[in-house]
């Protein structure tokens, strides 16, 4: 859309594949909020005056909607500013989740606007009053739709570029405004042509739509605050990166913690040959940690799991055996010691075979190679994604 990509590129230089610097991200969000505040206040004044002249409850409600949008933009601005505060003793991972709270506030405000519009519209339906649309009021609606369409495209494009749920919520709110103004405009044209006043009914329909949309925004805003699962693409990218280094046999127990956009931390276990040099393994893991931080912007801590690579490959045998039970199953940390074989068995949540049955099945697999040992199995669930841990069989 007109100037959107150019403006976004001006605010956030560089290619889309490059991680966005925290200060650049904050400045871009701050600038977007200021732009939206100015546009929303202008639209509020224009539609408010037009609504008063026409006596249209839906047009006046639409004007107040723009005023609430300006308020939510102010909250977004504060959210970006507070989220940019550096880490301190009480918040060692920073204050990035302020932005999620700002997004939640915007979502709740969207719901409040929808509820208010429903109440106003029901009143208009029960106690109808004449609506006199003028050319000025119709022009205000049409202009508002164009401006809001641009704002929706701008906020969504920038929100996706800097990974901001707040701006994405603002974009959805602007899209709702386009639908709101379009419904009011359609009702006005029909009323002018037929003489039947649809103003209240149009407002009611739009109010219901806004409430439904707002609830979706609330769910999206709450999810990262509750600890949602990381993006499977990100999880796979981290695993692929770890597996690309020499002497890495596998990786598991990957955990990704989100403390706000651009503030992700992770940890993982990395399987390496137990017969290798510990100092060399430590150096490899340090290199992986530094590379992931530099290239992906994620602070990660890696733990080395020594794996026996000599002998008859009991580990590979058990891995293949549990995959025959179900491809979603996997094992890691297999060790033999003093007549015991111990390992962790990873199965997805909601797996339809009980732990007791699984223990019996995997014990049979182990006993095919080690008939005299006892099995110690720890059942585990993946924290990052339902995908199998990366490994070399």
UniProtKB/TrEMBL annotation:
A molecular function GO annotation: monoatomic cation transmembrane transporter activity
Domain Cation efflux protein cytoplasmic: 230-306
Localization: Membrane
Record's bilayer topology term: Multi-pass membrane protein
Gene3D superfamilies: Cation efflux protein transmembrane domain, Cation efflux protein, cytoplasmic domain
Keyword Zinc among record annotations: no
Main location: membrane
SUPFAM superfamilies for the chain: Cation efflux protein cytoplasmic domain-like, Cation efflux protein transmembrane domain-like
The Cation efflux protein transmembrane domain, residue ranges: 34-226
Cellular compartments per GO CC: membrane
Superkingdom of source: Bacteria
Transmembrane region(s): 100-119, 131-151, 200-218
Keywords, in A-Z order: Membrane, Transmembrane, Transmembrane helix, Transport
Pfam families assigned to the protein according to its UniProt record, in alphabetical order: Cation_efflux, ZT_dimer
PANTHER family: MITOCHONDRIAL METAL TRANSPORTER 1-RELATED
Similarity-based family: Belongs to the cation diffusion facilitator (CDF) transporter (TC 2.A.4) family.
The protein, known as: Cation diffusion facilitator family transporter
Lineage summary: Bacteria, Bacillati, Actinomycetota, Coriobacteriia, Coriobacteriales
